[in-house]
User: Which sequence fits this backbone?
């Protein structure tokens, strides 16, 4: 408050010596460098949002809490600080909860702060406005959950939330803020004293020297070694150490989807285009921040072939070891510390992997890349995935610092393989769950947190889960270009209902013009029917930095069921009717 105003209104002087829950929460957030909030306003947090904004915190208002939650989740991934999502009670809380669970599953630090209703009434189940025992519901779905009942505990409550979110394996934290808390008044000096600045919120976890030596011994013994980089490695922001380690080892590496770009996909050691060969034929596999979950076929079965394998795993979470198969050399610690320790212990003359293995991998990769090349240059109308993605591949090559958001089925699986990524943390996508709906939330979060242009490559179904946020993108004038791969439906637009008049379950209105949606909010809409049109439209959007939505018309018959994971659909021994 300006001094002049105080002089005019002496009554405020007394007020200034008091503070309240609203202000303490704002002060606590700022003290810990949490200066962006993603949310949706309403009772009981509307005024809090206003005051936070007035105090200089960036408060981004969304159209649906799930999208605000995804923005916060990806903010956590990109910055290593918890992304903050703010919602109203019960329904708003539940809308945000999917994103909180998603953050936890993907190991992104995030704090969901929700207002909640009167404890006394909720606990007696007397039917309060938006009554729900939110703390109990959040608990099993996140890493930690806390409730703050007294203004003097706001500082410690937020400190616990921050530490829980970012230390060890990061994850989602729920912070329950009952309506009454905001209005609670206390002495301002005591309030200031109650705040906690979290020192070293994610302490380094140094691996044991024995574990490091064991890992290097196993790696050295390999005839056909492979390194798999996971998104944990991307999260760590230990980019230089990881690059040096991989290069010094000479081992072929396979980046998981969100680890693409840690080393460029065009790096001579990149085995991305020889994935099935390296999984099948490798004899030692070192995973850095990658888990042996379904995305890696649990480390066993057909995809991994017959060759006996030894696994080395680097992860901050000790429980991750032996989760699916035996880990011959577990290295537990934070990725940065582990990779630095490995680098140091490698010494000056680390032997290159056997030349025949390198040759096998390189020639398989080159063969696959050459096979794909002509398909990416096709100029078919209507476009197929390869023609359209070939264009986007070149655009990303020319703009390597843009952030690529990607979701869909075919749109996801094919883009992941085709679009090369050149820098760390430039590709963000559906993650561990293969969830649809991250698109616009991620695009907004990435634009806000990094200030970089964003290219969102979206299946038409995928886009629908968060499509209304194009208004948010226009409102904040974010440099986001959304390209919708419009094939009239989920996987394909050609399904027919064999019984009755309703459309088949996987198809949408044919020939929809998604580009018109953004025009309603003052953005630029383009209908692109050929690779050339697509190229021109995306380049113009990326040059202008203006919110743009491009409806890329894709052949409705071009995709396949469930993209590349059709094998996960349950099959019956009985014939399909
Ligand atoms: C939240 C959620 N709901 C449903 C699904 C199932 N699902 C997987 S991919 C997909 C949409 C695929 O269609 P589209 O985005 O148009 O991509 P296309 O294959 O057509 O290119 C759906 C609904 C999911 N993964 N996540
Ligand atoms: Mg589709």
Assistant:
């Amino acid at each position: 408050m300006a001094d002049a105003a105080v002089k005019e209104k002496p009554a405020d002087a007394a007020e200034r010596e008091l503070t309240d829950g609203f202000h303490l929460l704002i002060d606590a957030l700022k003290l810990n460098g949490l200066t962006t909030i993603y949310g949706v306003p309403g009772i009981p947090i509307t005024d809090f949002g206003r005051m936070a904004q007035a105090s200089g915190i960036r408060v981004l208002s969304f159209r649906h809490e799930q999208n605000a939650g995804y923005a916060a989740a990806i903010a956590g991934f990109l910055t290593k600080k918890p992304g903050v999502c703010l919602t109203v009670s019960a329904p708003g809380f539940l809308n945000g909860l999917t994103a909180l669970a998603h953050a936890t599953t993907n190991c992104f630090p995030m704090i969901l702060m929700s207002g909640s209703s009167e404890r006394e009434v909720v606990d007696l189940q007397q039917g309060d406005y938006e009554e729900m025992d939110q703390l109990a519901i959040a608990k099993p779905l996140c890493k930690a959950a806390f409730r703050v009942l007294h203004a003097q505990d706001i500082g410690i409550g937020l400190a616990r939330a921050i530490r829980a979110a970012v230390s060890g394996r990061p994850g989602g934290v729920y912070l329950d803020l009952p309506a009454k808390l905001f209005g609670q008044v206390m002495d301002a000096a005591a309030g200031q004293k109650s705040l906690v600045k979290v020192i070293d919120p994610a302490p380094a976890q140094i691996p044991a020297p024995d574990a490091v030596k064991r890992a290097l011994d196993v790696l050295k013994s390999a005839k056909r070694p492979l390194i798999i980089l996971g998104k944990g490695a991307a999260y760590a922001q230990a980019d230089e150490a990881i690059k040096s380690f991989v290069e010094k080892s000479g081992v072929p590496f396979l980046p998981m989807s969100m680890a693409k770009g840690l080393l460029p996909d065009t790096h001579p050691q990149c085995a991305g285009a020889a994935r099935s060969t390296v999984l099948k034929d490798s004899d030692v596999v070192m995973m850095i921040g990658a888990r042996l979950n379904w995305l890696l076929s649990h480390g066993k079965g057909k995809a991994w072939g017959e060759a006996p394998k030894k696994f080395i795993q680097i992860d901050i979470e000790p429980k991750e070891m032996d989760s699916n198969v035996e880990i011959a050399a577990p290295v537990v610690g934070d990725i940065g510390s582990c990779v630095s320790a490995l680098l140091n212990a490698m010494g000056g003359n680390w032997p290159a992997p056997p030349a025949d293995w390198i040759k096998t991998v390189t020639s398989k990769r080159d063969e696959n890349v050459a096979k794909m090349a002509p398909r990416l240059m096709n100029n078919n109308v209507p476009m197929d995935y390869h023609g359209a993605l070939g264009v986007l591949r070149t655009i990303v090559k020319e703009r390597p610092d843009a952030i690529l958001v990607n979701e869909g089925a075919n749109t996801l699986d094919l883009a992941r393989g085709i679009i090369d990524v050149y820098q760390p943390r430039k590709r963000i996508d559906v993650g561990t769950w293969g969830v649809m709906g991250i698109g616009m939330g991620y695009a907004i979060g990435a634009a806000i947190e990094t200030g970089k242009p964003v290219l969102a490559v979206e299946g038409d179904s995928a886009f629908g889960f968060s499509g209304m946020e194009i208004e948010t993108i226009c409102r904040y004038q974010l440099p986001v270009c959304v390209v919708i791969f419009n094939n009239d439906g989920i996987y394909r637009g050609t399904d027919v209902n064999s019984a009755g008049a309703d459309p088949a379950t996987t198809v949408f209105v044919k020939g929809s013009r998604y580009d018109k949606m953004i025009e309603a909010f003052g953005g630029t809409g383009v209908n692109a029917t050929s690779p050339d049109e697509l190229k021109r439209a995306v380049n113009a959007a990326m040059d202008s930095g203006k919110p743009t939505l491009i409806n890329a018309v894709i052949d409705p018959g071009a995709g396949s069921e469930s993209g590349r994971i059709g094998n996960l659909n349950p099959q019956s021994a009985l014939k399909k009717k």
Q: What stands out?
A: The pocket of magnesium ion (ligand 2) is lined by residues 459-461, 487, 489-490 (CB under 6 Å). The first strand starts at residue 18 and ends at 20.
